[in-house]
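Example (one chain per record):
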Amino acid sequence: MPEPKPGQNPVHIKQDILWGDMDAFGHINNTVYFRYFEDIRMEYFKKAGVMNYMQEHNVGPILANTQSQFRLPLAYPDNITISTCVKELQGKRFTMEYQVYSNNHNQIAAEGNGLIIFYDYNLKKSCAVPDEIKKTIAALEHN
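Predicted structure:
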């Protein structure tokens, strides 16, 4: 199966690997990948209007679960492309899939996913993903 190319997902960002993110084993520490996932998740939320919606209505996302599969170690110096897409949008939740692509190695370094639950911060309980957000996600995913 051919490797996915960077940017196949609708939202992607490029970042340089930081020297300070390496651990005693000489590669990027596994916890850093979850920051990469957070970086791209927040970029997606920005593009989908999720953060503006949250500021206006106090309804927004909560990360309920996340995981990663590490495919190759990253080390300084490298430039990575982090990308994401939304899968399985239903009711109160959706799943985001992430990829971290090493430009030095020309292959995926890690893949992961996160379960996002929509939450009403006033009522302190989960709620349906707002129709407005469903529409912006659909538009992002079909461009």
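Caption: The radius of gyration is 16 Å.
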